[in-house]
Amino acid sequence: QVQFEESGGDSVQAGGSLRLSCAASGNVGTVDCVVWFRQVPGKEREGVASVWPPGGNTWYADSVKGRFTMAQDSAGGKWFLHMSSLTPEDSGVYYCALSRICHVGYGGEYKNWGQGTQVTVST
Known about the structure:
Blueprint: E1 4-7, E2 11-13, E3 18-24, E4 33-39, E5 46-52, E6 57-60, E7 68-72, E8 78-83, E9 92-99, E10 105-106, E11 117-122
Parallel strand pairs: 2-11
Antiparallel strand pairs: 1-3, 3-8, 4-5, 4-9, 5-6, 5-10, 7-8, 9-11
């Protein structure tokens, strides 16, 4: 079973940038999408970016469009989330997961996420 490990989270000031990474322990296959979602205590989790690995197609939530870019390593098994122009609303724990639907926004169903990585954006 695939398991993800996320890294790269940090505390930054508003307007700053971060690059998150996630590595998969096995082959994610060709059916599911890889999704970055974020979780803030007391709030619904939000899918912010997703990619369908075979084709490299990407989707972004409106809240991050133009500021976040999801990329995948050409060798496979690793994905990145480049985040720029960060605001305090981007704070949260970021997870990498599989999803049968390349869903972004709220209400997505995810599986196989890792321990997450904390992003804190201060003013």
